[in-house]
Specification:
By secondary structure, the protein is mainly alpha-helical. It contains five helices and two strands, in the order E-H-H-H-H-H-E.
């Protein structure tokens, strides 16, 4: 998949656990885990906004496009 999710990288930089992020963003651990592992098919802008707010980052810090070769 050409979209890479770097949520785990940003969480590590902010020293935040999945449980803590889940509590602050208001998403279930299951949904955050699906996003973190790159298995999500979509993400709502409101969810992305909440994650960026909590992690103090930009959407481009979490999502990356890598062209297929």
């Amino acid at each position: 998949m050409p979209i890479i999710v770097n949520l785990d990288v940003m969480m590590a930089k902010r020293k935040m656990s999945l449980n803590e992020l889940s509590d602050k963003v208001g998403l279930t651990l299951s949904n955050l885990s699906i996003l973190k592992t790159g298995k999500a098919k979509a993400i709502r802008f409101s969810t992305l906004e909440s994650i960026c707010d909590v992690l103090d980052c930009q959407p481009g810090d979490i999502l990356e496009y890598v062209k297929d070769e």
